[in-house]
Amino acid sequence: MSQPPATVKHWRILPQVPPDVRAQLAAYHPVVAQVLYNRGQDTAEKARTFLEGSADALNSPFLMHGMSEAVARLRRAIARGEWIAVYGDFDADGVTSTALLTQALSALGGKVTPYIPNRVDEGYGLNADALQTLKDQGVSVVVTVDCGIRSVEEVAFGNALGLDIIVTDHHSVGDELPPALTVVDPKIDARARLLEGRANGYPEDMLAGVGVAYKLAEALVRAESQQSRGEFNAKLLEDLLDLVALGTVADLAPLDRLENRELVRRGLEVLNRAQRPGIYELLQVARVDPGRINTTTIGYMLGPRINAAGRLSDAMIAYDLLTADMPRAGQLAQALQLLNVERQSLTAEAVELAKTIAGDVDAPLIFAVSPEFKPGIVGLVAGRLCEMFYRPAIVIEQGESESRGSCRSIQEFDITQALDECAELLVRHGGHSQAAGFTVANENLDPLRERLMALVTGALGDRDLRPTVTIDAEVPFDSLTMDLAHTLGQLEPTGARNEAPLFATRDVRVTECRRVGQDDKHLRLRLTKETTTIDAIAFRQGEWHDRIAPGSYVDVAYHLEINEWNGHVKLQLNVQDLRLAGGGS
């Protein structure tokens, strides 16, 4: 048996709960208390709110910059019978945002049409040709969702056409706000608090795009009920929450924030009812039972299928799915399923190509350019490379005169800030600290590579760029019980910045090991320590089959799960990292 190479991952075991905090969290299982402490919930009140939620977590939408002006213009458009266009983005956040606001405006009596640009032909965000088309179709008001915050020139063009443009977005604010009728973005309030010391404004700056769209819908409903002195339409807002959960989780909005947690918690309740035909049919093709949807289901089953439409075809397929009736919804779900299978294959091939092009994957920055990259998957490829090698990765689809790139980064490096420092080399850019995109003229590709490499090297050159596995606690194997698994479920919704708890146990004996899945890329294990034996699954770790054998001892880092299959319910470890016992830190 060949020995595995030294692990490339560093295990970081988080500090144990201090005695004073342990006393505060005495009502909880010790393992749960440790996880709560790790998530910053270090008092009894914080823990209770984090686990149980609170109506106070939902802020008034009218606190958000530009909200009152947006509501006033949209209500005027509804009253006058003007056509309103909801202009979205082609990812899951943008598609759900578009579906949500279109549904809300229609329910309030608006004449509304959706518009989602084509990724290949139009690219991200507002574009002049689309605005001209909408104007020619009789649209007078354009509301952006999940885009537009950096579309300064495009909004100016729309103004010249006579369009009233309302920008709603959640991405980082640039040096100049677009000259829209009004701009709704919680990061405007956050920037004002930082630069001006203001205490007012919207308290939560990390909503997803669909979260911002929902707050606009809520503001419209509240304004309508106040104006008419009628009943508040809580049912309409509740019916939109499935889209909020779907887009928020798929876009990796942080779930350590109370408002996001509350929106997703409520949204999961609606999502699990599968009352939307498109959701029901999507669950069928993903082989997920209604009532069993959680954030993992969204992240790995539903979100990728919705994203597949915009990546490889037309995002309007996904929009149509979310707004369709039967039997059309079933046909659209099947179309998304086929696109998702194709997306998986193309991504795997492109990752190998990118590694070849980049060459030295040990350099501080992975930078790969090729006309062979499909524009819809460059973000996935960059994300996979960033995950594999733990360093910023940029993958660029080279066009004839301009190229489009997608960036993924690690916590130690803000990629959007780096792009800001290269702004004169770029046609456009935008995004978050760890995920961004840009368009660049081909003659600037080499200067861009050099500039970004210098920035990354300056920031990370002396860092140990090993992937870090952050472990909540080392747990004895005999403590892994069904009761503990159920108790850990109180931490839901888990996701970005509130990851599912990760535990470690050392010196566990492998009693069974076999490859499973397509191309044998996954690993099925049975692990034993003393009198406790638990089954385990290690996704994308099939190469360990040739490195360990029954009787080997390993250290294992894992999520504790409840596996339900064919009526059987049992514990399962979802293995995140393996190494031979005694393999180091």
Describe the structure.
42% of the residues lie in helices and 21% in strands. By secondary structure, the chain is α/β, with parallel strands linked by helices. Among the domains are: 10-15 and 469-580, Beta Barrel (OB fold (Dihydrolipoamide Acetyltransferase, E2P)), CATH 2.40.50; 61-234, inorganic pyrophosphatase (n-terminal core), CATH 3.90.1640.30; 359-460, Diaminopimelate Epimerase, Chain A, domain 1. Strands 3-2-4-5-6 form a 5-stranded parallel sheet, sandwiched between helices. It has a 5-stranded mixed sheet with strand order 7-8-9-11-10. Strands 14-15-16-18-17 form a 5-stranded mixed barrel. Helix 4 packs across helix 9 (209-228), helix 5 (92-107) packs parallel to helix 9 and helix 12 (277-286) crosses helix 15. The two termini are 24 Å apart. 46% of the residues are buried.
- What is the CATH class name of the domain at 61-234? Alpha Beta
State the total count of DSSP E strands.
Answer: 18
Secondary structure tally, helices? 19
Strand order, main sheet: write it out: 3-2-4-5-6
Q: What is the CATH architecture descriptor of the domain at 61-234? A: Alpha-Beta Complex
> Fraction of residues in helices?
40-55%
The secondary structure category is: alpha/beta
Relative strand content: 15-25%
Q: Major sheet, described briefly? A: 5 strands, parallel
Terminal CA distance: 24 Å
As for the CATH topology of the domain at 61-234, it is inorganic pyrophosphatase (n-terminal core)
**How large is the radius of gyration?**
24 Å
**What is the residue-averaged pLDDT?**
94
